[in-house]
Amino acid sequence: MWRVAMSEEVGKAVQSVLERVKQAAARRPKTLPAVPPRLVAVSKTKPPEMIVEAYRQGQRNFGENYVNELVDKASDPVILESCPEIKWHFIGHLQKNNVNKLLGVPNLFLVETIDSAKLADRVNSSWQRVRGASSQRLKVMVQINTSGEQNKHGLPPEDTVSTVKHIVSQCSALHFSGLMTIGRYGYDLTLGPNPDFQMLLSRRQEVCDSLKFPMEEVELSMGMSTDFEHAIEVGATNVRVGSIIFGNREYPNSALNTPNPSPLPSPAPSPEKTSKTVSEEAAKKMHHLTVSEH
């Protein structure tokens, strides 16, 4: 019975987030590229039934942080049968020894976390083998460590242009789609626009100026459960939202694994975040601040 209740809540949550995405896009300055934001539902630790329910509500893009979990879910018979048009995003740290496993995932749509030229080369050569006679290129984003934190993966910002240039000129099996960042957690929007998002915007400008790319062809993946509306308002084209759609993360040996017939838990950490908890009040405050800026 709890699964039915949770599925109903997932459906409502997807519709709610999609409406918030639409409203945030309407508040963007007209000077920004008019690219409709893509919602990536981050489903890590969640069962296939929840993914299927979100899919039934029209959601197509789903994100996973861990290669093994993505392999298991993308190959799950229920998902393969019920979600034929699903698009998987890999949004976690990718180690070179997991590249082949990742690229074998059915319906892999976008790898958002290329953080070095060497990793790009490995993914490029592996994709050439995987695709065989097909000429389809694999979409990738370059991950930037905009906050400079040592516990965050991603390129130093100053290496952005050279790495993108390497992918475009040397990795013929890859299609460069844009830039991605996680950024510092818990930024207070009363202090002004999020500096990590501003950093990603400026790096996109550099890439476009240096390589003569149209701005609208370089996507920005930034913004998670607590700040996706602000991210969209300043230019995000891809937001990664998990906990406010699927509820708190469920990890092995955790009390959160106990079946719970009640509605979805209150918003928890952003998709890539597991160490620091953001309270429901903080999430509401962030939403209020984002809306009240305009």
TrEMBL record:
Keyword Membrane attributed: no
State a single Gene Ontology molecular function: pyridoxal phosphate binding
Q: Does the keyword Transport apply?
A: no
Question: Which controlled-vocabulary keywords does the entry list?
Answer: Pyridoxal phosphate
Q: Where is the Alanine racemase N-terminal domain?
A: 36-248
User: What would be one Pfam family of this protein?
Assistant: Ala_racemase_N
Kindly list the residue ranges recorded as spanning the membrane: none
Disordered: region residues: 254-294
Q: N6-(pyridoxal phosphate)lysine occurs at which residues?
A: K44
Q: Set out the biological process GO terms recorded for this chain's protein.
A: vitamin B6 metabolic process
Instruction: Name the InterPro entries for this protein.
Output: Ala_racemase_N, PLP-binding_barrel, PyrdxlP_homeostasis
UniProt lists compositionally biased (Pro residues) regions at 260-270
Q: Which CDD domains match?
A: PLPDE_III_YBL036c_euk
Positions with biased composition (Basic and acidic residues): 273-294
Family to which the UniProt record says this protein belongs? Belongs to the pyridoxal phosphate-binding protein YggS/PROSC family.
This chain's function reads: Pyridoxal 5'-phosphate (PLP)-binding protein, which may be involved in intracellular homeostatic regulation of pyridoxal 5'-phosphate (PLP), the active form of vitamin B6.
**Protein name per Swiss-Prot or TrEMBL:** Pyridoxal phosphate homeostasis protein
Organism whose genome encodes this protein: Cyprinodon variegatus (Sheepshead minnow)
